[in-house]
Amino acid sequence: MTQETDHFFIWSKRMNFSKHNDFDYNLIKVMNEVITSGNLSRAALNLNLSISAVSLSISKLQRQLGTELFVRTSQGLKPTDDALQINQVFLHALDLINDGLLTLNDNVRGQSSLNVTCPDLFEHYYFQNLYQQTNFSDTEFKFNHHIKCSHDEYVDCLLQSFSDLIISDFPLRNEKVTSTLIDSLEDFVVVVSQSSLLANQKKVTLAHYHVIHHAVCTYNAESLVNYSCKDNCSFGGRNTAMVKVGYHSSSINGVISAVEHRGMLAILPRKIVGNYINHHHSNIVMMELPDEVCCKKICIYANYKKKKDKVRGMESIVSSICKSQCEEVCCHY
To answer: CA 105, CA 135: separation in Å to the nearest integer?
Structure first.
């Protein structure tokens, strides 16, 4: 029996629930919004109700439960321990309902669906092999190429079932979330077009690194690959991190196209570039970075909710991604 279920039975006994109970569950919804919003006026706005209606709902709920739910502080309304316990039961119940509806919808369609939140680059690299595998042929992957969120926003996204799986560059620390390291990107290369005058060279010079425009793969308007310089090296009075950016996009296809057709260069993880060359037949070549330039390692995590009907499927997907990365490493060596 879960902690949420224990709380449910405690409150059921206190309220003397029966089949004929006329309890208005909308009152719980109002309380939940007040907890989330922190004050009556913001909760009223979000619920499209008047402030007095929200206040009356909270008063009615307190009378029915026989306990105080909020205390006023200088920062606003603070929920009591009883209110937080009820809130957890309410969120747990909503989660079960949402999962049940999704399962029912999957059964009707004869196909399961999985909502994945991740950058475009990660979708192309980590999921393309899954489409080919028989054990995932009945799974419909729905991708959201999101704007990068904060840690807490990602956690809320999972707990409220807006997403089933989040691929991020940092782990989500929450007791209800499983976070698994699936990859570590630390080997980077310079990418240029096969028709580039640099294509026959093994390494890009620092001068070319600064003179040629860069096509940058972005993540929330920031470069996915973070450049840094060794020993504060500079070229022409500029730090090596300062480059000419001619194109930036969250689309990896857009970045590769800019390299192929516009004479730019890009800095990307070696194995992702190798994947594009082998599977997409892109007209690009890899070159080594200048000795003066290095890139920060990117750790990739798969995050999903622990208590969810889809958790077994999620574990299978994460396991397949990790396995494919091990095979990729073996191929390189």
So the answer is: 20
